[in-house]
Amino acid sequence: MSYPDPPESRIGRPGRLPELLVPGLLGALILLFFAVPFAAFLARTGAVGVLETLATPEARAAIRNSLLTAPVSTAIATVLGVPLAYVLARRSFPGKRLVEALVILPLIVPPVVGGAMLLTAVGRFTPIGAAAAAAGMPLTDSLLGVILAQTFVAAPFVIITARAGFGAIDERLEQASRSLGYGPLATFWNVSVPLARGAIVAGIVLTFARAIGEFGATMMVAYNPRTMPTRIWVEFIAGGIDAVVPLALALLGITLAVLAAVQRFGRVPTVIDR
Amino acid sequence: MILELEGLRHRYGEELAIEDVSFGLEEGELLGLLGPSGCGKTTIVQAIAGHVRPTAGRVFLRGRDVTGEPPETRRVGIVFQRSTLYPHMTVGENVAYGLVSRDVDPDRRGALVEEYLELVDLHGRREAYPSELSGGQRRRVELARALAPRPDVLVLDEPLSALDRRLRRQLRGEIARIQRETGVTTLVVTHDQEEAMALADRLVVMNAGRVVGVDRPRTLYESPPTPFVASFLGRSNAVPATVVGRHPLSVTLGGREVAFDDGPDVPAGTTVSCHVRPEDVSIHPPHVAVPGTDPVLSGEVRHVEDVGRRYDVTVAVETGDELLVETSSDPPAVGDRVAVALSGDRVTVFDDGSSAAETS
Fold first, then answer.
1. What pTM did the predictor assign?
2. B125 φ, ψ to 5°?
3. Which residues does chain A have within 8 Å of residue B78's beta carbon, measured at their own beta carbons?
4. Maximum CA extent, chain A
5. Which chain B residues contact residue A194 at CB under 8 A?
6. pLDDT per residue over A98-136, tens digit each?
7. Nearest residue in chain A measured CA to CA from B99
8. Rounded to whole angstroms, how far apart are CA atoms B40 and B18?
9. Residues of B with CB under 8 A from a CB of A
10. Is B72 in contact with A176 (Cβ distance < 8 A)?
11. Contact A273 B49 (CB under 8 A)
């Protein structure tokens, strides 16, 4: 007795295109586009003395300034942005559309324009800026100015990702917590935050990466003191591509290290009762 | 009364969800809240738990008006249709969660967690995470979590709907046992009439946002107050009849005059509808006089369904209606001419189209 080939045998038949061939090829193109400049840039590393450059006082000051400002900006964005994300995920209210538009405004405005906007609000000759400067805390050309610029540009990332995270939680889990005796704040802390932790952590990492790499708005608000990105610009003007490599590598290294650390920290289970 | 709802009404925007809902639960009672999807059951659960502030009406817990109070100050235990166990906490932590908020001291807390996990037969799984449990086990942990803080009332909102049939039956028994052992006042909300009848001491039947019947399940089943209750609690047939006399009400149906002890008070000539359950209808050979005074209708068999322990026979009768008849043996064949007899004492008469009805 002979049977015709079962249909399964067709899967392996030569000549049939793998199902993911087309999307795979298209994806490979964009990956190549990411990888080639990256590799080419790294290939320059050998040509310059990375460590010597980083040891110069200018580079060290830039690194210090970036390491001071970016975590503060990220913390501000997180502390103020995550609660906003929660409200946006849980409530509808009149004017919500407007609020949502406001949240993505810093994303769609070019950073350099965002910086200009900040200047018009807190610049040296505005009431706020003048008052702050008089109090000894100038909001432009200061680390405070850097933090303002970074926060303005980077905060939407944590708000948008955290909002998606909160939105994915079944509201009944929070209702159950309320019925088990917890108020809205305790419920937010015990249930909502741990359950949205993955999204919040992802948002924090994105925000930090964006903040530490911020250039356009920072340049407008606080060209001095130099951060790593503004220093990179100065080096580029003076010495071309090769001059940029050491600080760029350091920036990349810091961002990757923070990513790894936050992800590891973020995975530690939150234990309510032990 | 442990829990009392008084004239509850709620609208979402323009849409009326519930209207004039009032009922109460006595201490230790298991009350079933039954109605089709979208009848307002969920709104009632949310109002009892405190997540919805009703547009009008009041909620009392142990005689205290809690209508304006937030959920955390009410002692209401809740189990929802879908699991709300916290995936980032172990089984033990989940059960302890409601004890921590009430400042039960840690030693006592540990003992209570053990006790309630034992109650639901899961004492070995304290360290497990919810994702390691089966669907039925998760349900039981939720029961333990809701019960551990000793709530005034336990609300089970469609607790079995997400489970498969076999598990549903098994857990239904578990719920009945746990309720018996703890004596907790319980409200079971369901759209499944079998579940409601099997579990509840008393039933509140709802339709379109209103309460349409409150009584013991058997009473509601045998003498439904409205045509809706008749058709929603089990299956029901309706045939029209004409009133020929009042006090006592008598109608002509199937060529016979049938008298009722109770029924709508309507003048002769009014068309009423007579409801009878499939098990109270019998099939007879045609052209043979059926003894007794039961109304008899002649008809033709349209459909026969063998459902195992009985046959469901659909007969198109002379009034133009189709009657569903349950018979345990010897079903007729499709196309047979038959006579069907309605057990006169099991017929409920409703004023046609309205809900004024017999109450017995």
1. 0.83
2. -105, 20
3. 175-176, 179
4. 99
5. 86, 88
6. 999 999 999 999 999 999 999 999 998 999 999 999 999
7. A180
8. 6
9. 49-51, 70-72, 74, 76-78, 80, 82, 84, 86-89, 93, 96-98, 100-102, 145-146, 149
10. no
11. no
Residue ranges in chain B modelled with pLDDT below 70:
353-360
In tens, the pLDDT along B108-133 reads 999 999 999 999 999 889 999 999 99
Both tokens of B179, joined, read 């309720």
Instruction: Give the length of chain A.
Output: 274
Query: Which three-class secondary structure string do you get for chain B?
Result: CCEEEEEEEEEECCEEEEEEEEEEECCCCEEEEECCCCCCHHHHHHHHHCCCCCCEEEEEECCEECCCCCHHHCCEEEECCCCCCCCCCCHHHHHHHHHHCCCCCHHHHHHHHHHHHHHCCCHHHCCCCHHHCCHHHHHHHHHHHHHCCCCCEEEEECCCCCCCHHHHHHHHHHHHHHHHHHCCEEEEEECCHHHHHHHCCEEEEEECCEEEEEECHHHHHHCCCCHHHHHHCCCCEEEEEEEEECCCEEEEECCEEEEECCCCCCCCCCEEEEEECHHHEEEECCCCCCCCCCCEEEEEEEEEEECCCCEEEEEEECCCCEEEEEECCCCCCCCCEEEEEECHHHCEEEECCCCCECCC
Calculate how close chain A gets to B322, using CA atoms only, in Å.
44
Q: Which of A172, A182, A272 lies closest to B93 in CB terms?
A: A272
